[in-house]
Amino acid sequence: MTRRLTMAQAIIQFLKSQSVARDGREQTFFGGCLGIFGHGNVAGIGQALQQNPDFPYYLFRNEQAMVHAAAAFAKMSNRLRTLVCTSSIGPGATNMVTGAALATINRIPVLLLPGDIFARRNVAPVLQQLESTASQDVSVNDCFRPVSRYWDRINRPEQILTALPEAMRVLTSPAETGAVTLALPQDVQTEAYDYPEEFFEHRVWTVARARADSGLLKQAAEWIRSSQRPLIIAGGGVIYSEATGELSRFASRTGIPVAETHGGKGSLHADHPQSAGAMGVTGTSAANRLAVDADLVIAIGTRLSDFTTASKTAFQNPAVRFVNINVAEFDAFKHAALPLTADALQTLEELGSALSSWQVPQTYHFEIARLRTAWDQEVDRIYARRHGPPLSQGEVVGLLNTTLEPRDIIVNAAGSLPGDLHKLWRTRDPKGYHMDYGYSCMGYEVAGGLGVKMADPSREVYVLVGDGSYLMMAQEIVTSLQEKIKLNIVLFDNHGFSSIGGLSRAVGSGGFGTEYRYREEGLTGPVIPIDFAANAASLGAYAVSARTYEQLGTALADAKKQTRTSVVVVETDYNDRVPGYHSWWDVPVAEVSESQAVREARAAYIEAIKKERYFWPAPQEKAEPVAAEQVQLAKG
Ligand SMILES: Cc1ncc(C[n+]2csc(CCOP(=O)(O)OP(=O)(O)O)c2C)c(N)n1
Ligand SMILES: [Mg+2]
C-alpha cells in the first residue's frame, strides 16, 4: 500500500504521527509549525501545511525569533516536545542559523526546514542563490552544518524515508539532541512520490533512562563516603530529567549542598536548607565559597561552562575530584571525572540507596547553614535598597520576585540581567527560571517567552528584557497579539549596554561604545531618548512606564490584569550594579596598550589567570601485571 503525496505533504504527514514516551507517559512530539513563507517554501511546505489544518501553522515576523520560540517551547517541555520551523531559501534560511546555534549549544531539539535551491539546477542561479565557482552542491544552507546535530539535503522525494527517522532519533536523544536541519530544495518539495503507508503510521520514540555502570556507581558512592566537603552542581539535565524531587531528597538525606548553573536554577526550592544558590561567575557567596575548598564535586547534567567553573578558577582544593552524572558521555568525562554516563533521576536514586544513611560531617553542615544565612541577608539587603530614581536593577528584581506567584515563569537571556537574576532570584518552581545562558543571545527574550507560553498556557510568563535586547528583536509582540498569547514584558531601560559597559571598564576601556548616545566627538553626546512605551503601544501592546518603586508596583499589577500582551518600561541606573561574589571570568586584556588603565587591567589579569586549573584523573591503583605463562595460556 502506498500514498501518492508531494515530498512536503509527506513530511507533514510523517511529523504528525510522531510521539515520544518517557516513564510510560506518551505525548505528541511536534506542536505545529512556525514559519515565514517565500518562494522557497510557499508552494511546497506552505501548500502541505494548508492541506493539514490539524498541524497548526503560526506566522512569525522573523525567522531567528521563530527558532528561539521553538527552542523555548522544547526547553519548557523538558525536551519531550518541540516545534518545526519552515523558511524560504536565502535570507529566510540564514536568519535561522543563530537560532540553530542557540538550540544546539543548549542541547535543545528543534527541527528546521529551510527551503533550498533547485535540485534540478537548470534554471540556476535562482533568486537569492549563493553561486560557488567550485561546486554546484553548495548553498547558504551549508551554513547550518556546524550548528546542527543532524544535517541533510533532500534531493529526491524518497530520501525522506531514511532522513526523517534519523532526524527523529537525534531530536529525541537526550545525549545527542540539538538543531536538526533538513534543507528542502524548492522543486523537490513539490514532487510527488508513492510513499509506503507504513511510513505514516503512529510511531512512539522512547526516551530511555540510561543506567550507570554498576562498578563506576559503586566507586562514586565510595568517593562520596570518603569526602569531607562534597558539593553538587545541578545543571539543566536535572530539570530535563525531572529529577528535582529526587535531588531534593538526596540533598536532605546526605546534607550535600547544591549549587545551580543557569540551566539548573530551580532544581531546588530557594528555601531548601541545602540550596547554596547560583554557582560560578554569577554565583552566590555561599556556593562560590563552598566550591573553593570542595574535595568532591558531583556535577549533574551540566556542561561545566566557563560561567559555572569561573573559567576553571572556582575549585582550588588541590585534591578536588569530580563525579559527573550526564546522559552525554562528552560531558560525563569533563574535568577527568569519574563518569556516570546516565540519566540524572535514575542515578540519584541508585546513589541514594548506595549511600544509605551517610551524611556530611557536622562541622560542614553548620558551615553550609552559616553561608546560606549570610547570603540570604545579602539578597534581602539588595531587595530593600531604595535607590534613585532611576531604580537599581537589584531592587526591581526584588520587587518582581516578591510580586510574582511561585509558578510564574521569568524568561531572560542576555545583558546584566542574567547575572543579577542568577544571584538574586528566589526560585520556587523547577520551571520558574527560564534562561538562555548557553548562547546568551540578545533577542531571545520576547520570542522565547512566546514559546514558553505556547508550551504551558496555564502559567503567567514574565519576559525580562534589556533595552538593547528589545531594540534587537521585539517584533514578536505582534505575533503574541495575533495568537492572543499573553506575555508580561518588563523592559529595563538603562540607555545602553550596562553589562558590556561594566566589562569594558573592567578591562580598562572605560565603557567605550556601549551607551546609546548621539555622535558628538565620538559617541559621547546626550542620551538618545527612546519612548519604549510608545513603541510597544504602536505594535498594539498595553504599555506603561514607571520611574519610582511605587509606580512600578502599580504598573505591574495593572499589566497583569490585561488580557493582551503588556510592556512595563522601567528606567534603571546604568552605573549601579550588583557586585560579584568571589568569582572571576576570563576575558583577556590587551597585552600592550597606550592606556594606563588597560596596562593596569592587564597586570591584574596576569595575576588572576594564575588560578586557572587543569584537572587530571585521580591516582589509580596499578593492576597486577599478568604473569607471562598466563598470557601464553590465553594465547594457546
Ligand atoms: C546577539 C548578541 N549580540 C551581542 C551580544 C553581546 N552582548 C551581551 S550583553 C550586551 C548588551 C545588552 O544590552 P541590554 O539588553 O540593554 O542589557 P544591559 O547590559 O543594559 O543590562 C551585548 C551587546 C549578545 N550577547 N548577543
Ligand atoms: Mg541596557
Structure summary:
With 636 residues, this protein is an alpha/beta fold.
Give a verbal description of the structure.
The chain has 636 residues and is α/β, with parallel strands linked by helices. Helix content is 37%, strand content 18%. The longest helix has 23 residues, at 362-384. The relative contact order is 0.10. The model has no long low-confidence stretch (mean pLDDT 97). Bound molecules: thiamine diphosphate and magnesium ion.
Strand order of the largest sheet: 5-4-6-7-9-8
Q: What is the molecular shape?
A: globular
Oligomer: single chain
- Cα-based radius of gyration, to the nearest Å: 26 Å
**Arithmetic mean of pLDDT:** 97
Major sheet details: 6 strands, parallel
The total of beta strands comes to 23
**Terminal CA distance:** 57 Å
Give the low-pLDDT segments: none
Give me the secondary-structure topology:
Blueprint: E1 2-6, H1 7-16, E2 18-22, E3 25-28, E4 30-35, H2 45-50, E5 57-59, H3 63-76, E6 82-87, H4 91-94, H5 97-105, E7 110-116, E8 150-153, H6 160-171, E9 179-185, H7 186-189, E10 192-196, E11 203-206, H8 214-225, E12 230-234, H9 236-240, H10 244-254, E13 258-260, E14 275-278, H11 285-293, E15 296-300, H12 306-309, E16 321-326, H13 329-332, E17 338-341, H14 344-355, H15 362-384, H16 393-403, E18 409-412, H17 417-424, E19 433-435, H18 444-455, E20 461-466, H19 467-472, H20 476-482, E21 488-493, H21 498-506, H22 532-539, E22 542-546, H23 549-561, E23 566-571, H24 596-608, H25 628-635
Parallel strand pairs: 2-11, 4-5, 4-6, 6-7, 7-9, 8-9, 12-13, 12-15, 13-14, 15-16, 16-17, 18-19, 18-20, 20-21, 21-23, 22-23
Antiparallel strand pairs: 1-10, 2-3
Helix pairs in contact: 3-5, 3-18, 8-14, 10-14, 11-15, 15-16, 16-17, 16-23
The protein binds thiamine diphosphate (TPP) and magnesium ion.
